[in-house]
């Protein structure tokens, strides 16, 4: 109720200001390339003596006529509410009915029907009939455009936006030229319009090409037609409203010419080349909407469960976007609103408090209802009040009406080959609806009113009257004829027929509801207070038998239907977890988007064929580039671990959703236990296997990530535990209030305190604290017996680098220019196509190439997200020369690997399994030999790692197998003894 009064007051204030001083409002809302400046004088002239008289009229009781806008708003909303309630079963769309009421009211006032006894109402209607067109744009447009964009299914819009853009940009350009040809054709054939030039014809073409599908989209929803089709039609309207106004400004500017009152920026935009002007106005509006959206979403994200603040912020964001765009920057306010609305519907949906989000949508629906009610009644009144025409104008109107349908058919035909291959595609049946459902509405009429308010020196009064009449006539014809008859077209094309899977789902739901309701009656019969009820009368209130017939269900793939049900359940689970604070905003957004993508396949893809989680492992290319920049290293790591945290959060929510899905499958098993639907039982078993595979995949993912990055696991687990505790506290307070153990005021105080803690948790969740390099290094084999000062020096010489799954740390034949220590995650060592080792935290890689100076003989690839400490060759050599333990330990690690690689190629050891060979090598030891000494291998084998020795006069240098014998050490050498 408060919001209803607020919305009425908001509209009334704006409109009353317009009534009180239109010239002042025009000077305040200076946009549309100075059209308003010209409109000031024109509107004052058009408000003839009868209208001026109403400003001074005082009604009985002493009420000033300045209250006319408020009175008109009240009456219009009463008409709207009554129409919605009493005519809800009417075949005529709601907006069309309002337009008809507006026309009837306007004609009644124009014929002085209310003179004497209804002066107050007549004055209010005359005010509406001569309303400034810019007030329509500034007051109603932000609400209508933003609400339509905000209510859009963003996933469906993304897949439909390419086709919508085709119709809205090249489509509208083709349409305006073809419409202009029709106008000039009427002129050349001598039918009429002798004073119309090409510029005026093009201006009319762009005004009449702006579509307004409010009635059609509402009808598509009521009939249960494809959401994809409704989104395409609505998306086209949102985009072509923007492009139509932009092109309108460009053409009107060329007709009017520059104004001496223009500011610097306005003059700069005016003097741009038409193509550059179009680009500036269009892309400028989009960028402004995104900028305001970013600021608003950041603001709202810092608010928690405060509906007044969050709703106020978003409402003002819509209006300020349009005002700044049109009044200050001279860019497209419509496209700014579209980008703002889509940003709020996608990213913003998870930043708005879950308890407020549903309320916010309802509030915007209320505002849109009020705006639509007022604007269509006003449109009807304006047409009835201002339309000036001759008998021949009706013939021209009929020609134009037929012509715009031919033009629309040509446009759809031209671009159909592209549209059927883009996004969801477009088939011929849907293309017919797109053609016939291109209604014209308030935007076109508002632009026509702008033309009608121009100075006669710019455009003659005759052309202005014709322009308004033809535009108004097309609006009426498309809303009355097309909007009413399109229902029959949609039904004739069979577009209301449900898909078999969906029909089966609805049939099952209806049958289940009736069965459970009947069981409830049997339970109520045993209640001692109700057992004497008239049960025959009660049964009349049972749900009806399923309305969908077996013929409508048709031949359905049961397994596809079940998959769709499971996916919808999974999606609901994600949003429930988000509402309870157990799933983060980024995670719920990614998981929901993944579900939408799978749902596009209609249940034909197995549930386990998905890559949601694997995609979250991958590091974006820009992060890989940034981490190579020293100044951005810390920022990059922070972003990387944030992504991993979201990945873990997603995986945990994913597993939770799979467990919920298993419960749903179990309940579906119970539904068919008593029946003989063997096919469905088989399908359920397949689905259960798919879900279990998902569950195992998710659990494995969590286990690996928890093992690799325990810090992330601890931080998210802590956050969940805190939120679960706070949820319990909130439920306890609610329970105590219901039982009367707490007064409402005290319960509200306690709930507010809990919400403050929830907000603190949301804004400052437990952070991921990674251990310092020295802590990771001190327990490693490489640093055994290394003193702490040296260990600190080594630690400072390492730089940390992150790798996503599949990234290569070392490639085959890479030169030994760096050494890596695996700090977190696992890597796999591959020789050719064979994986020879999986190495985890604490392992060193790249040491053989560094110590021997040879290129790498293996590929080292990240098997999971990896954090590696990297040290360059020169630093390694300097440190190895400073500490003998550091050097000896590294050669020992390298020696074991080199021994394994060499022995695996021999006949004796090559037959052994890799693990057994590794156990033999682990028992070996590293020998450090000094030049000039003697070294004896007695009944043992060795691998010479570096240096040179002499055996029986033959010098052995480099990496070689060494048989038992007595060796003279030529150069300092390292030998690994088996």
TrEMBL record:
Residues 1-23 form the signal peptide. One of its GO terms (cellular component) is plasma membrane. Keywords: Cell membrane, Ion transport, Membrane, Signal, Sodium, Sodium transport, Transmembrane, Transmembrane helix, Transport. It is found in: Cell membrane. GO terms for molecular function: potassium:proton antiporter activity; sodium:proton antiporter activity. Residues 782-880 form the Cyclic nucleotide-binding domain. SMART domains: cNMP (SM00100). It is a multi-pass membrane protein. Pfam families: cNMP_binding (PF00027), Na_H_Exchanger (PF00999). InterPro entries: Cation/H_exchanger_CPA1 (IPR018422), Cation/H_exchanger_TM (IPR006153), cNMP-bd_dom (IPR000595), cNMP-bd_dom_sf (IPR018490), RmlC-like_jellyroll (IPR014710). GO terms for biological process: regulation of intracellular pH; sodium ion import across plasma membrane. The chain crosses the membrane at residues 70-87, 94-114, 134-152, 164-186, 198-220, 241-258, 278-300, 307-325, 364-383, 395-419, 431-454, 466-490. This is Sodium, potassium, lithium and rubidium/H(+) antiporter. It comes from Salinivirga cyanobacteriivorans. The gene is nhaK.
């Amino acid at each position: 109720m408060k919001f209803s009064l607020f919305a009425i007051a908001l509209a009334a204030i704006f409109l009353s200001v317009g009534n009180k001083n239109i010239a002042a409002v025009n000077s305040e809302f200076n946009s549309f390339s100075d059209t308003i400046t010209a409109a000031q004088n024109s509107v004052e002239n058009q408000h003839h003596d009868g209208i001026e008289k109403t400003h001074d009229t005082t009604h009985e009781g002493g009420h000033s006529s300045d209250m006319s806008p408020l009175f008109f708003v009240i009456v219009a909303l009463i008409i709207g509410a009554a129409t919605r309630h009493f005519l809800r079963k009417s075949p005529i769309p709601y907006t069309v009915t309002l337009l008809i009421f507006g026309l009837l009211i306007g004609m009644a006032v124009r014929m002085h029907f209310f003179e004497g006894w209804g002066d107050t109402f007549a004055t209010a209607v005359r005010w509406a009939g001569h309303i400034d067109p810019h007030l329509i744009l500034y007051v109603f447009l932000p609400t209508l455009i933003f609400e339509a964009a905000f209510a859009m299914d963003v996933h469906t819009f993304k897949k439909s936006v390419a086709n919508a853009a085709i119709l809205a940009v090249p489509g509208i350009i083709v349409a305006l030229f073809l419409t202009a040809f029709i106008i000039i054709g009427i002129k050349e054939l001598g039918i009429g319009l002798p004073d119309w030039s090409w510029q005026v014809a093009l201006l009319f073409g762009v005004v009449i090409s702006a579509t307004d599908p409010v009635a059609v989209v509402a009808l598509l929803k009521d009939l249960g037609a494809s959401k994809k089709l409704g989104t395409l039609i609505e998306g086209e309207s949102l985009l072509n409203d923007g492009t139509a106004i932009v092109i309108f400004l460009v053409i009107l500017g060329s007709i009017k010419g520059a104004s001496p009152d223009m500011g610097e920026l306005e003059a700069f935009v005016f003097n741009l080349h038409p193509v550059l002007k179009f680009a500036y106005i269009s892309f400028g509006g989009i960028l402004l909407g995104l900028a305001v959206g970013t600021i608003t979403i950041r603001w709202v994200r810092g608010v928690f469960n405060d509906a007044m603040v969050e709703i106020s912020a978003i409402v003002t964001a819509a209006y300020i976007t349009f005002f700044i765009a049109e009044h200050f920057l001279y860019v497209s306010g419509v496209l700014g609103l579209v980008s703002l609305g889509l940003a709020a519907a996608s990213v913003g949906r998870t930043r708005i408090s879950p308890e407020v989000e549903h309320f916010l949508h309802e509030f915007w629906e209320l505002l849109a209802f009020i705006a639509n009610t007022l604007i269509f009644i006003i449109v009807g009144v304006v047409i009835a009040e201002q339309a000036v025409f001759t008998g021949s104008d009706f013939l021209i109107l009929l020609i134009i009406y037929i012509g715009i349908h031919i033009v629309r058919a040509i446009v759809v035909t031209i671009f159909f080959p592209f549209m059927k291959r883009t996004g969801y595609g477009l088939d011929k049946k849907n293309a017919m609806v797109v053609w016939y459902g291109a209604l014209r509405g308030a935007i076109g009429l508002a632009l026509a009113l702008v033309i009608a308010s121009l100075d006669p020196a710019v455009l003659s009064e005759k052309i202005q009257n014709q322009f308004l009449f033809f535009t108004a006539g097309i609006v009426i014809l498309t809303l009355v004829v097309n909007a009413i008859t399109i229902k029959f077209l949609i039904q004739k094309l069979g577009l209301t027929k449900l898909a078999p899977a969906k029909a089966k789902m609805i049939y099952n739901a209806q049958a289940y509801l009736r069965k459970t309701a009947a069981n409830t009656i049997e339970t109520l019969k045993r209640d001692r207070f109700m057992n004497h009820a008239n049960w025959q009368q009660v049964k009349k209130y049972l749900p009806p038998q399923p309305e969908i017939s077996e013929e409508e269900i048709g031949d359905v793939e049961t397994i596809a239907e079940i998959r769709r049900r499971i996916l919808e359940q999974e999606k609901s689970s994600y949003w429930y977890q988000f509402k309870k604070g157990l799933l983060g905003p980024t995670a719920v957004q990614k998981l929901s988007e993944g579900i939408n993508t799978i749902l596009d396949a209609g249940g034909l893809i197995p549930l386990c064929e998905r890559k949601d989680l694997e995609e979250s492992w991958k590091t974006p290319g820009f992060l890989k580039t940034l981490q190579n920049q020293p100044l951005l290293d810390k920022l990059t790591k922070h972003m990387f671990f944030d992504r991993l945290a979201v990945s873990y959060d997603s995986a945990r929510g994913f597993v939770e959703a799979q467990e919920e899905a298993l419960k749903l499958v179990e309940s579906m098993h119970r539904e068919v236990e008593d029946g003989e639907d063997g096919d469905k039982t088989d399908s359920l078993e397949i689905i259960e296997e798919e879900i279990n595979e998902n569950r195992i995949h998710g659990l494995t993912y969590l286990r690996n990530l928890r093992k690799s990055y325990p810090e992330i696991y601890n931080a998210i687990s802590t956050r969940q535990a805190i939120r679960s505790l706070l949820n319990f506290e909130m439920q306890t307070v609610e329970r105590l209030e219901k039982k009367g153990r707490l007064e409402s005021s005290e319960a509200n105080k306690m709930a507010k305190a809990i919400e403050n803690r929830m907000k603190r948790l949301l804004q400052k969740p437990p952070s991921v604290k990674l251990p310092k390099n020295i802590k990771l290094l001190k327990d490693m084999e490489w640093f055994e017996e290394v003193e702490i000062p040296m260990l600190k020096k080594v630690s400072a010489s390492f730089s940390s680098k992150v790798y996503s799954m599949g990234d290569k740390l070392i490639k085959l034949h890479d030169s030994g220019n760096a050494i890596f220590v695996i700090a977190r995650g696992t890597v796999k060592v591959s020789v050719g196509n064979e994986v020879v080792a999986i190495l985890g935290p604490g392992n060193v890689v790249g040491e053989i190439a560094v110590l021997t100076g040879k290129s790498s003989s293996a590929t080292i690839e990240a098997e999971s997200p990896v954090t590696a400490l990297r040290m360059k060759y020169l630093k390694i050599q300097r440190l190895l020369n400073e500490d003998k333990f550091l050097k000896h330990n590294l050669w020992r690690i390298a020696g074991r690997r080199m021994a394994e690689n060499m022995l695996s190629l021999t006949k004796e050891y090559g037959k052994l399994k890799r693990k057994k060979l590794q156990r033999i090598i682990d028992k070996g030891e590293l020998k450090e030999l000094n030049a000039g000494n003697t070294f004896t291998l007695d009944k043992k084998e060795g691998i010479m790692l570096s240096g040179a020795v002499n055996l029986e006069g033959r010098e052995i240098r480099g990496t070689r197998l060494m048989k038992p014998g007595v060796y003279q050490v030529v150069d300092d050498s390292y030998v690994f003894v088996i």
